[in-house]
Design brief:
The chain has twelve helices and nine strands. It is of the alpha/beta class and about 300 residues long. Strand 5 (about 90-95), helix 5 and strand 6 form a beta-alpha-beta unit. A six-stranded parallel β-sheet has the order 3-2-1-4-5-6, with helices on both faces. A three-stranded mixed β-sheet has the order 7-8-9. It binds nicotinamide-adenine-dinucleotide. Nicotinamide-adenine-dinucleotide binds near residues 13, 241 and 245.
């Protein structure tokens, strides 16, 4: 029997991920609460529905969710009209959202009690990685569930890792994004310092890309415009990965660190910087727009 996929949440990431599944020949239907996202999916030729009720039935063999936060995943899986009570026992549940470990474990436990396989499978690589199907996917769940999910995950990503039991995917992802938040601020500080020193930014960028100060924000996603085509900094900081999402991930990292008495002073500082940035109304800008407030107000690029 062919795989029938239900995909919930076709925003910045979910849209290209669902598109890749569709292009690979998978039978897939998508749903999102946002009409704008549904229209965008329709334009790409994807099959859409206008409710969870019309999306989920016992013929669905795989559900994939790509939602903003833990509260959204919890509502979709365990809420009043939660899909966990609507799918068949043979259905595989894949939550690709980046959420807190506890919620991930809670949903996984309910699924397990009902005999349904579930994995958490958050991703990294950004919208470009989602479009090019080169995502890194970090999976938490049983080996059996991991093996079953592999063919579908391989359509969306390049490196697929089994991190451990349910919740471990999100644990790995939270550690990764704490480093990303810190390194985006570090890249912004360096490039803004170069600017203040009146050194050609393009040259400094080229040097850093090949020297020991390189990082993902420098080589792939620079926070200043004019360095790499197709990045949010070249598109007026339209996300991409929003500052609000980075703030959420840094909060998750802070809470995780507290729960195990880990000292993460730079993670805490990055959270304070992003939190303030979001409070100033920049939540929906790309997270690389943090360069706006770095470098002693040296910002001189237009940003709306
Ligand atoms: P997004 O806000 O663009 O997309 C989320 C989508 O979920 C939206 O379209 C929203 O309408 C939809 N949604 C919310 N509640 C829903 C519900 N109850 N039913 C159906 N749809 C619902 O966010 P995104 O950037 O695509 O990120 C999604 C997840 O992936 C987040 O957890 C984020 O942290 C993670 N992530 C994002 C990136 C990135 O670069 N954007 C990279 C890696 C991981």
């Amino acid at each position: 029997m062919s795989d029938k996929i239900a995909f919930i949440g076709v925003g910045n990431m979910g849209n290209p991920m669902a598109e890749n599944l569709f292009k690979s020949g998978k039978e897939i239907k998508v749903f999102d609460v946002s009409n704008e996202m549904i229209e965008r999916a329709k334009k790409k030729g994807l099959n859409t529905t206008d409710s969870i009720e019309s999306l989920i039935n016992d013929e669905i063999s795989t559900v994939i969710t790509m939602l903003p936060e833990g509260k959204h995943s919890k509502e979709i899986y365990l809420g009043d009209s939660g899909i966990i009570n609507k799918v068949s026992k043979n259905c595989l549940l894949i939550d690709c959202s980046t959420i807190d470990i506890e919620t991930s474990k809670e949903i996984g436990k309910v699924a397990n009690n009902q005999g349904i396989m579930m994995i958490d499978a958050p991703v990294s690589g950004g919208v470009m990685g989602a479009q090019k199907a080169t995502l890194n996917i970090m999976v938490g769940g049983s080996k059996e569930a991991f093996d079953r999910a592999l063919p579908v995950l391989k359509v969306m990503g390049k490196n697929i890792y089994h991190a451990g039991d349910i919740g471990s995917g999100n644990g790995a992802k939270i550690c990764n994004n704490m480093a990303l938040g810190i390194s985006m601020i570090a890249a912004s500080e360096s490039l803004m310092l170069a600017k203040r020193l009146h050194i050609d930014i393009k040259k400094v960028h080229e040097i850093m890309k090949n020297a020991s100060g390189n990082s993902w924000p420098i080589s792939v996603y620079p926070p200043l415009p004019g360095l790499i085509d197709g990045t949010p900094s070249n598109n007026n900081y339209r996300p991409g990965f929003s500052a609000g999402m980075m703030n959420k991930d840094l909060k998750l990292a802070y809470e995780c660190a507290k729960s195990v008495d880990a000292e993460t002073p730079l993670g805490k500082m990055a959270l304070e910087i992003y939190d303030q940035f979001c409070k100033e109304g920049n939540e929906s800008k790309d997270f690389s727009a943090i360069s706006k407030v770095i470098g002693g107000n040296a910002w001189d690029y237009p940003i709306d």
